[in-house]
Amino acid sequence: MNELGRLEDLPQDYRDDLTKLNLVPLWPSLRAVLPPKVPTRKTQPTFWSYEALRPLLLKAGELTPMEKAERRVLVLANPGHGLEKMQASAAMYLGMQLLLPGEWAPSHRHTPNAVRMIVEGEGAWTTVDGEKCPMSRGDLILTPTGLWHEHGHDGDKPVVWLDVLDLPMVYFMEASYVIEGQRQAVKQSRGDRAWTRAGVVPSPVFARSDKRNPVLRYPWADTRAALQSLAADQPDLEAVQVTYINPETGGDAQNILGFYALMLRPGQSLTLPARSPAQVFHLIEGSVEAKIVDSRFTLAEADTCCAPGYEKVTLTNRLADQPAFVFIADESPLHRKLGVYEVR
Ligand code: GTQ
User: Fold this and answer.
1) How many angstroms separate the alpha carbon of residue 298 from the centre of ligand 1?
2) In whole angstroms, what is the distance from residue 77 CA to residue 60 CA?
3) How far apart are CA 13 and CA 24, in angstroms?
4) Three-state SS for 217?
5) How far is the CA of 263 from the centre of ligand 1 (A)?
6) Per-residue pLDDT at 119
7) pLDDT mean values, one per 10 residues, the chain (344 residues)
8) Handedness of CA 87, 91, 96, 102 (dihedral sign)
């Protein structure tokens, strides 16, 4: 590749004339924005230990009352982006949220899409668009763009969940905002009860659902059973993985980020191909080693790590006698819509 001219090669008076007119020469910066073959990625392989962050999250429960927090969250920030940017990757935000018994995180709605992966505790619920969704370990609950949502807790121990939002993307688009609201009236019907089987779905005889996704809650018991059933049916299948979808369209559950559950068979080592989107791995059950670029992370239950795009990732089940279950979030829907998705 040709060496391109530098800014310093240009006379200062010429540079000053450009600046006055809000003009910039491209060639000194061309390689920075169009690097050869592989994009520049700020996203670093990063690991967050649940055991290490849990006491700090509980401490936040003592230090900051709900009225002063609205959402009591410690953000899992990627140092490659700068911690203050609150990004796990270019498009993904991760946070660990704490709700104490009796607390209520008030209703609001916002343009970024969110999901919650429940990590610990029983008795809490999220009401999304009037559907009161119980929160249990491993459940995935969606709050798609624009829908009212609030969190409450009737149990007697702290509840913690992992928030995954496309906030960095929506913020970058200058489209991120929130509207505060009142406590929602709870509706009778719930998508996770109406849509319980992949093969038989509600028939829209009189009206089609007006929802972006008729399912807002994916119970872990069902997802886990689907993985085990798939693994038993196809003993040679390399990647025992399911995608969280919108059952009405068969497409991704949300517009920007993709969500998956992966089962690693006892002792299995799986190398995922290098693909353009960044990924997040959160261990629901078992013990897994994640090899990402030059890092090796040992994930215990509830630990989380992330991988930049365009890199292979090897996940190894460290246990020889039981499967491991991993929740994965990635930027695939976004990359596909933008036309930049690729597998190397
Ligand atoms: O629970 O609605 O981690 O609005 C960040 C922003 C959680 C939430 C976050 C939010 C929420």
Assistant:
1) 28
2) 17
3) 14
4) strand
5) 28
6) 98
7) 91 98 97 95 98 98 94 98 98 98 96 98 96 97 96 96 98 97 93 89 78 90 97 97 95 96 98 98 98 98 98 98 98 98 97
8) positive
Among the listed residues 139, 103, 123, the one whose alpha carbon sits nearest the alpha carbon of residue 223: 139
DSSP, residue by residue, 281-300: EEEEES-EEEEETTEEEEEP
- Beta-strand relationship, 311-317 and 269-275: antiparallel
Torsion of CA 151, 156, 158, 162, to 10 degrees: -50
Q: Quote the pLDDT of residue 210.
A: 66
Q: How many CA atoms lie within 13 A of 59 on its CB side?
A: 6
Ligand 1, pocket-test mutation among 57, 73, 127, 141, most atoms within 8 A of CB: 73
Smallest CA separation from ligand 1 atom 11, residue: 71
CB 94 within 8 A of CB 164: yes
Q: Are 234 and 265 in contact (CB under 8 A)?
A: no
Q: How would DSSP label each residue in 325-339?
A: EEEEEESHHHHHHHT
Rounded (10°) CA dihedral 190, 195, 197, 202: 140
Encoded tokens for 197: 């089987």
Whether the Cβ atoms of residue 183 and residue 107 lie closer than 8 Å to each other: yes
Walk me through the domains of the chain, giving residue ranges and CATH numbers.
Answer: 39-182+215-338 (2.60.120.10)
Q: By the 8 A CB rule, do 313 and 307 touch?
A: yes
Distance between CA atoms of residues 183 and 91, nearest Å: 30
Instruction: Let me know: does 93 contact 86? Beta carbons within 8 Å.
Output: yes
- Give the DSSP letter of residue 256: S
Of 257, 147, 150, 164, the residue nearest 210 (C-alpha):
147
Q: Does 112 sit in the ligand 1 pocket, CB within 6 Å? A: no
255 contacts: CB under 8 Å, gap ≥ 6: 113, 144, 145, 166, 212, 333, 334, 337
Cross-strand partners of 149: 108, 128
